[in-house]
Structures are given as C-alpha cells and as structure tokens.
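Handout for the seminar on molecular recognition.
Each group receives one record of this type.
Step one: identify the two inputs.
Step two: read the structure output and locate the region that could contact iron/sulfur cluster.
Step three: write two sentences on what you found, then compare them with the reference statements printed after the record.
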Amino acid sequence: MTNNLFTTNPFNSDDEFGDDKLHEECGVFAVFGRNEAAALTALGLHSLQHRGTEGAGVITNDGLNFHQHKAMGKVGDNFNSPDVIEKLPGYAAIGHNRYSTAGKKGVLNIQPFCAELSFGNFALAHNGNFTNAKKMRQELVNRGCIFQSTMDTEILFQLVAQSRAATVPEKLAEALKQVEGASSIVAMDDKNVYGVRDPYGVRPLVLGKLGESEYVLASETCALDIISAEFIRDIEPGEMVILNETGVHSSYPFPKQSQRFCIFEHVYFARPDSVLDGRHVYEVRKSIGRELAKESPVEADLVSPVPDSGVPAAIGYAAQTGLPFEFGIIRNHYVGRTFIEPTDHIRNLGVKLKHNANTASVKGKRVILVDDSIVRGTTSKKIVQMMKDAGATEVHMRIASPPTTNSCFYGVDTPEQDKLMAHKHNIQEMCEMIGADSLAFISIDGLYRSVGEQARNNNTPQFCDACFTGEYPIRIQDSGIEAKATTDKAA
Ligand code: SF4
C-alpha cells in the first residue's frame, strides 16, 4: 500500500509532514458586467488560493444559461486552458476556492452550487461554517430534501429553494436567518449577483469596481489587485449587496450584532498584501512583531522568521530591537503532492522537505525565531532542533499570536481541542517540549494594540478571538457551545 504523505488537509489526515498551521477554509469571488467574467474569476481565485487549494469552481451567466466548471486541485491546473474558459461565456460569474473541513473531499463538494429553482437559475458559494448545520440538515432531510453533497453550504441552497418569500433577495435573507455561524456569501440569479456578510462580519468580503457598471466581490483585496479592479469598500457586517445593470444596491436584512471580525485573518490567514477593514495586513503583522519585542525581549544575535508567514512579524521584531534580520531558515516552495513509502527514516527527514536551516546565518549565533502560531507544536519542535543542528547556540521562539487554546468553528480548519499544544500545556511546558531556550507569545492586549485598538474590550471584544480566549461570539449548536453574551447586542 502506498501512503500519500502530502495531503491538502493535515488535520483531517494522518499526514506526518502536515505544516501544523491553521487553515482558512475558502475564498469567494464574483464579477458582474464584464463579458470576460470567467477569466476574471479564474484570476481572482488564483490570488485567493492561500484560502484553499483543494478544488475550485466557476459558474457564469450569459443571460440565457448558467455554465459551470469545477475541478479538484489548483486553479492554475484547471482553468489554464482557453477551452475551459470558452465554455464559460457570460457577463457575470461567481467562483470559489475550497479547503475542506465541513464535508468530505470530492468534486461534488466543490462550490459554487447551482440549480434551476422555481424562480430561475441560482448559484451560491460560501466562505465560513454554519454552526447549526447538523440540526438544519436533519430538519431538511426530514422534510424530504435530497442532498448531493456533504457541504453545509448546500443547506443554505436548499433553504433558498424552499423559501416562499416573494423575491430572490428575500429568499436569500430568509434562508440566512435560519443558519447560524460565519458566512461571506456570493450568489447569482438570472439578473443579479449578490454578496452577503453575516451580522458579526467574521469572514471578510470586499467590493471593487472594474469600470462603469462592472463590479467585483472578493474575499480579499489581493483578488481585486490581480485584475486591476479598484477597491470600493468592505461589505459591512450584516449587509447584502445586489450588483446588476442599475448599479450596487445595499440593504441590511438581519438583526444588528456587535462586529466580530476574525483577528486571526490579520495574524496569518489573509495575504499580507491585502487590506482588511482599512488595515494593511503587512503593516499589522509588523506591528505585532514590534509589540512582541516590547513585551518579550531577549538577548540574541539575530532575528529570523519561520518563513513565509513569520516574515513581517520578524521584520517588526528586528526593527524594534535593532537586531539584524536574517533568513535562518530557507523554505522550499516546490513541495507538492509526493508519494513516498513512509519509513521512520524518511518520516524524520520530512520537515526538511519544506524548511532547511541556513547554516551561514545561524552557526554560532543566538537566534530569535518568529512564527505566527503554535498549533500542535510538532513543526516547532523540528525547526528548533534544525536550528541547533545547524550550530545555533540558543534558539528563542517568539510567537505572533496568543496561545491557541481553542478550536475554531467559524470556517477555519483546527485540530480537535485536545490536540492543541497550548490547551494541554503551559508556556514553560511548551518551551521544554519544543526544546527552545525560551518561548513567548504576544499577549491578547498586545495583539489588539497591533491592529490599532488600545486594548481588548473584555465586555464587547472588537474581534472574534475565540481560539485564544474561548469566548465564542456565535453559539455552536452542533457542539453545545454557547456564545458569550456581549453588552451591546442591538435588537
Ligand atoms: Fe478566527 Fe479564531 Fe475566531 Fe476562528 S475562533 S474566527 S480563527 S479568531
């Protein structure tokens, strides 16, 4: 039997060489008003692949029919041929990058979903997770619904199909009121493209413009940049926008809630060249490094990132301390799917396929290593050992997020809580387990300062930070976790 050592989902597999990171589940993209909508959507999805590479799908509308192409694997491998794009004519399109957590793998679970409903064609794609999916799915099955996939997104699609509301926006809003959780949605009917963000605004969604009456929706601004679209604004929490021939129409069909954007988007998920809620991600990450240096200084000779995600924070840490910034670790960007018979010897070499020590930088040096997070701790341990094997005399780990003590239920792939190193161990224990000379995490208030707040408002936190604090802003019905009430929940 041959085992695949490299899968796209390290937490849903026995992957020994998984990168031990949290993973964003999905990216969404939509275009209205341009005849090359399919090609633009493929480009947009290409720039959102850090949010998911397991599969991608595009559905277009040419005014008469919907056309679709979905495939497992990377966008560049599946939307690179003129034949594929020519089979996707239309002036409007929606697209989706998938990273599976909710639902199994396979092409049936690739979004967008599309069908002819009572009111015409309808397509839908979603970034996030519904936290009452199990209950809603059972209710729908009891009502006679037949599901084609195991995706929670299909629940929303079925609710739209069953809605008796008069208009499509009303049907979509009615369906969304029945699901709980995090969702940034793009959808399309015969005449319109829709974008919706859940009332807490957990996941991002932005609006851009290509030309007169030509609009774009995307998970992040980096997907606007690739097609030279102008950034207009973030879609607001609880907002629904409709893009059509008469422009952009906005409404707020949901009860207002206190905003809880995912703070981990700033730490790790989003691309550093994106702008989230007016904040440049790259600058926020450098600020995190500066705060970390102020909170947890240590005598050393150089600062090195764990590439690539630790780079901006390490730059900030080095700038704050005046220590040299060096690449003590070189990342191999060409690790892909590889089939190797796993022996213990090969398994132990695994981490070097992705990272290798840069001996010239670290030999005989006291090294501060900056990483974005510690999840299970397996990679941290191997990287510290790699530094020591390369001759580093001391290795001090500095982490650009607070300890990850809780799982995410809002669209991020996390191991079960008891597999999170920080859930079971205190910082001193973690330091000993990974073999570092010291270990420090940024404080939760330091993280809030880095994103421009004075501190965390403990009554009404400005962000979702549940994976660090355990305070879930939205109840997780399927797991029995209740939301922590906040003081300014508006009616
Ligand atoms: Fe983001 Fe963590 Fe909240 Fe999930 S639990 S939405 S990863 S801050």
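Reference statements: The first helix runs from residue 37 to 47. Residues 202, 262-264, 408, 410, 412, 464-467 surround iron/sulfur cluster (CB under 6 Å).
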